[in-house]
C-alpha cells in the first residue's frame, strides 16, 4: 500500500514577513496510521498542514504522497486524496445549504448529479447528519457544523484525512460524538490538537513540534506521559493522566 | 446596536420561511421572480393619481401570502418599518400639488390623491418583494438568476456574500459589544476607534476570504462554479405566470373596482 | 439614498436596469479576464463585511448625531472598480430582497447610483490621481474625502434626475437639488472620514493588502476611453429616465424631504395663492412638472385613464367597487387559509 504513504522531506517554510515557521521537518506516515501533531501556539502545526495540502509552497524540501511529488501538476490529483478539515467550520462551509456544500467537491470533479447525490448522502450518513442536509450552515450547532465540514471532505473520498483542531469549541457531548465518528474511519489521519486527551484516545503515534521542528516522534503512550518533554513543548500531561483533583488519587 | 441584531434576526426569519413547503414554495423560482417583477412594473406604470384602480393589485400579495403560508407578522413588521418613509415622501405632494378634485361633492386636493397612490403602490411593491423572498429564498433567487443567464461567477459571489452576512454581522456585533462595555456612549462609535474597529474586522475578513478560497481550492475550485440540479419550469409554473399575467393585464386594461361599482349601482337602480 | 418602487416609473426603472446590467456584464468580463480566482471569495466575504459595517453607528464629532458607512469607496479601493461595483451590486440586491430596501424595479437605479459613480468615475479619476504611487496618510485622507464626496454628490444628483425626469412627482427640481446636494455633502464627508480611517489602519497593519489591491488592478486600470463608455452609458440612462422616488433609511434623502416639506409648510402659511404659484413657477425645472395652476382640467385629463370623469356618480361607484375589491381579496385570503388548515388536519 505504498501509494498511501504521506511523506515530508526536510520541509522549510518562511512567511513573507520573515517568520521562519517550519525549520526542516521530515516524517513518514503509513497507510491507516493515526498521527497526532501537538505543540504550543505558534509551533508551526497549521503551517505544516498547509504545506501538506499544497496551500503553501515550501521554500525548501518536498511533500510526497504515495510516491507522487506534490507540485503544480500533481496538485489537484493529490488534493483528491487528501481531505483537510479546517479549524473553523465557517470557513469551510461556504455554500448556503449543507447539501450544496458537501456537493461542491464532487460537482467540481464534474461527476453527474446522480453520483453527486449518492456521494453527498453517503458522506452525510457517515457523520450522522443526513437529516440536516437542507439546513443553512448558520442554523447548525458547533458540533453539527464540524460534522458537516467533515462531510464536505468525505464526499471527495480521500484516503488521508487531515484535521486541524477538530474538537475545538465543541461541548463535551459533541466532542465525544465527533471522536466516535473519527474512530470509525479507516483513513490515514493526521490530527493537530491541543486536546491531548483526544489525541491519547485516537492516535497511536504523536509528533511534538516546537519552533518549526519535530522534537519528538513516537508512540503516543510514551510521549504524552513524558512530563518533561511535554512541558518543554509548552504543553502539559493529558488531564486523564494527571492526578485526580477530587479524590487526590495520584497516577 | 439594535440594527445588527435586527438584521440577523430578519435574515434568519426570512431564510426559515423560505425553507417551508407550500404550493407557492414548490413553484419554480423563476416563475415567482418574473410574476413579481411583472406585477411591480405594471403597478408602478399607473399614473400618480391612480388610487382605487390599484386595489385589484392586492389580490396577488394576498394570494402569495395565503397560499405560501407566510404569516402576516414578519411582513407587517417589515412594512411598518418602511411605511414612514413612504408616507413622508407622499406627504410632500399635498404641499406641491394644489389642484383640487371633488369626491362626493367634497373638494379635495389632488396632492392627497398622489399621497394615497404612493402609499398604496409602495406598500404593495414592498409586500410582494418580501413575499418573493419569503417563498423563494436566496437559493431560489440564485437558481433563477442562472436561468436568466446571469454569469455563474456573479451568482457565486452573491451567494458567498449572503452566506457570510450572518457570520460578519455576528462578528461585528461581538466587536461592538466589547466596545459598548467599555464606552461612555455605547450607542455609536467614537471617531478614534473608527479605523481600528472597522479595520480589525476588515483584516479578519480578508484572512477569512483567504481561508475560504483555500477551502474552495481543496475541493477542486478552479475559477468555475458547478451548480447542481437546474430544474426547468413545469406546467404549474407556466399556469401561475400566465394566470397572474392575465389578471394583472386585465386590471390594467379595465378599472375593475369602478366596473364592479357600476354593476352594483346599476343593480341598485 | 435608495430609490423605491413606489416612486419609479417602468421607463426609468427599465433604463436604469439596462445601464446597470451593461456595467455589470462588462465588470464580470473584466474580473474573469483578471484570472485572479482568489478575488471571488474575497468579493463575497467583503460584501458581507460592508453589509455588517453599514449597520454600525459612527458618532460624528461635535454634532451628537451618528452617521453610517455606504462602503462603495472602500470596496473600490480594496477590490478595484470592477469587483467593487459587482460587490456593491450583491449587497444592494440582498438588501432589496430581505429588507425591501428600494424594491425590485428600483434596484437597477440603486446599484447605478451607489456603485457606478463611486467605482467608475470618482475612484479612478480622483482617488487614484490624488493618492498616486506613494501612500501617505495625508494624501489618503484628502483623496478619500474628495472621492467620497464627489461620488455621493453624483449619486444624489442621479436620484434627483431620476425623480424629476419621471414626472410623477410634484417636487420642484430646484428645491430638491438644493436640499439633496448639501445633505449628501455631509454624508460624503462622513463616508470619506470612515474610509480614510479604515484605509490608514489597514495600511499600518497590513500594507500588503492595499499593495496587492493596487497590483491586481493593473490589468483593470481605467483608460479615458472606458470612462467615456461609462459616461455614454450614463447618458443613455439620463435620457430615458423619469420617476418618483423614496428612501428606506433615515439618511440624507429623508432629511432632504423633511427639510423641503418644512420649508414649504412655511410658505403655505402665506395666505396668497399667487405668491406660492410664483415661487413654484420660479423653482420649476420643467414647467409641466412644476406647479399645476389650480388645474382641474389638467387633472381630469391625467386622471381620465384610471378615474374617468371625476363626478359624484362615478366616485360613488369607484368607492363601492373599491370596497368590494378589498373584501374579495380578503375573502380569497381567508378561503385559502381555511383550506390550508383543513389540509393540515387531513
What shape does the CA trace of chain A take? Answer: globular
CATH homologous superfamily descriptor of chain A: P-loop containing nucleotide triphosphate hydrolases
Q: Which sequence of strands runs across the widest sheet of chain A? A: 6-7-8-3-9-10
Any idea what the CATH architecture of chain C is?
Answer: Orthogonal Bundle
Work out the radius of gyration of chain A: 18 Å
Weakly predicted, low-confidence segments of chain A = none
Residue share in helix of chain C: over 70%
| Total separate domains of chain C | 1
Determine and state the CATH class of chain C.
Mainly Alpha
N to C succession of SSEs of chain A: EEEHEEHEHHHHEHEHEEHH
Main CATH class of chain A: Alpha Beta
| Known CATH architecture of chain A | 3-Layer(aba) Sandwich
Report mean pLDDT of chain A, rounded to a whole number: 89
Describe this structure in words.
The complex is a heterotrimer of chains A (251), B (269) and C (346). With 251 residues, chain A is α/β, with parallel strands linked by helices. Helices cover 35% and strands 24% of the residues of chain A. Chain A contains 10 helices and 10 strands. Chain A has helices at residues 45-53, 75-81, 89-92, 98-108, 113-126, 142-154, 172-184, 196-202, 220-224, 227-232; strands at residues 6-14, 20-29, 34-38, 60-65, 68-69, 82-85, 160-164, 188-192, 205-210, 213-219. In chain A, a hairpin with a 2-residue loop joins strand 9 (205-210) and strand 10. In chain A, helix 4 crosses helix 5 (113-126). The longest helix of chain A is centred in the middle third of the chain and has 14 residues, at 113-126. Chain A is globular and about 55 Å long. Chain A starts with 5 loop residues before the first strand and ends in a 19-residue tail after the last helix. The relative contact order of chain A is 0.17. Chain B is mainly alpha-helical. Chain B has 2 domains: 1-149, no CATH class; 151-225, no CATH class. Chain B has 11 helices and 2 strands, in the order ααααααββααααα. Chain B has helices at 2-18, 23-26, 29-45, 59-67, 72-90, 92-96, 110-147, 152-180, 191-218, 235-253, 256-268, and strands spanning 100-103, 106-109. The termini of chain B are far apart. By secondary structure, chain C is an all-alpha fold. Chain C has one domain: Arp2/3 complex 21 kDa subunit ARPC3, CATH 1.10.1760. Chain C is 73% helix and 1% strand. Chain C has 13 helices and 2 strands, in the order ααββααααααααααα. Chain C has a two-stranded antiparallel sheet with strand order 1-2. The longest helix of chain C has 34 residues, at 312-345. Mean pLDDT of chain C is 72; it is low at 218-222 and 239-311. The A-B interface holds A 50, 53, 55, 76, 79-80, 83-84, 86, 88, 90-97, 100, 103-105, 107-110, 113, 116, 134, 136-139, 152-153, 156 and B 12, 15-16, 19, 138-139, 142, 159-160, 162-164, 166-167, 208, 211-212, 214-222, 224, 226-229.
Amino acid at each position: 500500500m505504498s501509494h498511501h504513504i504521506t511523506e515530508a522531506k526536510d520541509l522549510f517554510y518562511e512567511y513573507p514577513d520573515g517568520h521562519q515557521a517550519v525549520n526542516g521537518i521530515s516524517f513518514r506516515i503509513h497507510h491507516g496510521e493515526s498521527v497526532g501533531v501537538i505543540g504550543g501556539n505558534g509551533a508551526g502545526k497549521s503551517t505544516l498542514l498547509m504545506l501538506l495540502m499544497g496551500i503553501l509552497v515550501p521554500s525548501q524540501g518536498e511533500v510526497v504522497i504515495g510516491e507522487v511529488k506534490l507540485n503544480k501538476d500533481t496538485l489537484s490529483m493529490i488534493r483528491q486524496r487528501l481531505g483537510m478539515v479546517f479549524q473553523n467550520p465557517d470557513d469551510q462551509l461556504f455554500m448556503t445549504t449543507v447539501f450544496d456544500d458537501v456537493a461542491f467537491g464532487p460537482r467540481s470533479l464534474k461527476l453527474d448529479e446522480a453520483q453527486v447525490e449518492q456521494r453527498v448522502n453517503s458522506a452525510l450518513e457517515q457523520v450522522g447528519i443526513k437529516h440536516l442536509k437542507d439546513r443553512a450552515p448558520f442554523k447548525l450547532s458547533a458540533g453539527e457544523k464540524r460534522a458537516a465540514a467533515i462531510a464536505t471532505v468525505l464526499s471527495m473520498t480521500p484516503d488521508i484525512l487531515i484535521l486541524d483542531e477538530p474538537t475545538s469549541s465543541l461541548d463535551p457531548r459533541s466532542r465525544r460524538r465527533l471522536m466516535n465518528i473519527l474512530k470509525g474511519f479507516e483513513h490515514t489521519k493526521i490530527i493537530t490538537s491541543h486536546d491531548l486527551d483526544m489525541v491519547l484516545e485516537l492516535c497511536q503515534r504523536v509528533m511534538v513540534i516546537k519552533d518549526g521542528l519535530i522534537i519528538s516522534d513516537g508512540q503516543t503512550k510514551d510521549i504524552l506521559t513524558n512530563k518533561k518533554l511535554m512541558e518543554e513543548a509548552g504543553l502539559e500531561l493529558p488531564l486523564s493522566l494527571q492526578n485526580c483533583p477530587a479524590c487526590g488519587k495520584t497516577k | 446596536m439594535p440594527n445588527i441584531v435586527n438584521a440577523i434576526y430578519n435574515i434568519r426569519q426570512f431564510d426559515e420561511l423560505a425553507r417551508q413547503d407550500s404550493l407557492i414554495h414548490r413553484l419554480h423560482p423563476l416563475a415567482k421572480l418574473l410574476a413579481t417583477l411583472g406585477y411591480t412594473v405594471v403597478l408602478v406604470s399607473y399614473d400618480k393619481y391612480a388610487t382605487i384602480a390599484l386595489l385589484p393589485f392586492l389580490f396577488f400579495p394576498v394570494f402569495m401570502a395565503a397560499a405560501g403560508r407566510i404569516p402576516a407578522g414578519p411582513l407587517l413588521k417589515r412594512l411598518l418599518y418602511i411605511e414612514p418613509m413612504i408616507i413622508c415622501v407622499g406627504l410632500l405632494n399635498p404641499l406641491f400639488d394644489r389642484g383640487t378634485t371633488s369626491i362626493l361633492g367634497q373638494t379635495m386636493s389632488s396632492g392627497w390623491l398622489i399621497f394615497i397612490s404612493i402609499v398604496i403602490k409602495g406598500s404593495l411593491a414592498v409586500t410582494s418583494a418580501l413575499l418573493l423572498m419569503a417563498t423563494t429564498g436566496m437559493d431560489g433567487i440564485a437558481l433563477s438568476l442562472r436561468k436568466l443567464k446571469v454569469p455563474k461567477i456573479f451568482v457565486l459571489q452573491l451567494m458567498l456574500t449572503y452566506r457570510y452576512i450572518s457570520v460578519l454581522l455576528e462578528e461585528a456585533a461581538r466587536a461592538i459589544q466589547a466596545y459598548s462595555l467599555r464606552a461612555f456612549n455605547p450607542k455609536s462609535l467614537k471617531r478614534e476607534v473608527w479605523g481600528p474597529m472597522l479595520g480589525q474586522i476588515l483584516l479578519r475578513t480578508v484572512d477569512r476570504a483567504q481561508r475560504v478560497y483555500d477551502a474552495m481550492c481543496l475541493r477542486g475550485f478552479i475559477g468555475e462554479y458547478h451548480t447542481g440540479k437546474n430544474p426547468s419550469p413545469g406546467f404549474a409554473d407556466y399556469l401561475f405566470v400566465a394566470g397572474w399575467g392575465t389578471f394583472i393585464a386585465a386590471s390594467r386594461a379595465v378599472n375593475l373596482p369602478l366596473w364592479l361599482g357600476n354593476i352594483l349601482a346599476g343593480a341598485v337602480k | 439614498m435608495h430609490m423605491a418602487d413606489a416612486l419609479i416609473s417602468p421607463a426609468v426603472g427599465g433604463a436604469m436596469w439596462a445601464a446597470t446590467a451593461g456595467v455589470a456584464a462588462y465588470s464580470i468580463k473584466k474580473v474573469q479576464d483578471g484570472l485572479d480566482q482568489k478575488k471571488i471569495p474575497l468579493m463575497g466575504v467583503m460584501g458581507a463585511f460592508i453589509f455588517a459595517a453599514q449597520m454600525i453607528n459612527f458618532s460624528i464629532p461635535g454634532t451628537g448625531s451618528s452617521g453610517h458607512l455606504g462602503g462603495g469607496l472602500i470596496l473600490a479601493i480594496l477590490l478595484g472598480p470592477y469587483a467593487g461595483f459587482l460587490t456593491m451590486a450583491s449587497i444592494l440586491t440582498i438588501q432589496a430582497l430581505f429588507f425591501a430596501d428600494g424594491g425590485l424595479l428600483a434596484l437597477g437605479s440603486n446599484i447605478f447610483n451607489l456603485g457606478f459613480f463611486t467605482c467608475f468615475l470618482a475612484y479612478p479619476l480622483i482617488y487614484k490621481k490624488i493618492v498616486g504611487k506613494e501612500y501617505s496618510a495625508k494624501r489618503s485622507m484628502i483623496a478619500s474625502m474628495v472621492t467620497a464626496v464627489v461620488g455621493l454628490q453624483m449619486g444624489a444628483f442621479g436620484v434627483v434626475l431620476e425623480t424629476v425626469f419621471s414626472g410623477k412627482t410634484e417636487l420642484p427640481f430646484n428645491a430638491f437639488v438644493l436640499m439633496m446636494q448639501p445633505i449628501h455633502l455631509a454624508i460624503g464627508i462622513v463616508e470619506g472620514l470612515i474610509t480614510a480611517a479604515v484605509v490608514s489602519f489597514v495600511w499600518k497593519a497590513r500594507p500588503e493588502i492595499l499593495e496587492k489591491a493596487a497590483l491586481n488592478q493593473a490589468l483593470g486600470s481605467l483608460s479615458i476611453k472606458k470612462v467615456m463608455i461609462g459616461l455614454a452609458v450614463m447618458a443613455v440612462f439620463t435620457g430615458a429616465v423619469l420617476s418618483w422616488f423614496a428612501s428606506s433609511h433615515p439618511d440624507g434623502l429623508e432629511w432632504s424631504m423633511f427639510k423641503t416639506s418644512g420649508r414649504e409648510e412655511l410658505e403655505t402659511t402665506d395666505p396668497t395663492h399667487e405668491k406660492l404659484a410664483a415661487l413654484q413657477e420660479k423653482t420649476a425645472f420643467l414647467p409641466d412638472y412644476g406647479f399645476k395652476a389650480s388645474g382641474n382640467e389638467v387633472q381630469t385629463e391625467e386622471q381620465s385613464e384610471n378615474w374617468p370623469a371625476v363626478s359624484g356618480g362615478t366616485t360613488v361607484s369607484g368607492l363601492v367597487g373599491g370596497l368590494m375589491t378589498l373584501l374579495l381579496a380578503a375573502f380569497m385570503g381567508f378561503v385559502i387559509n381555511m383550506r390550508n388548515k383543513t389540509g393540515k388536519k387531513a
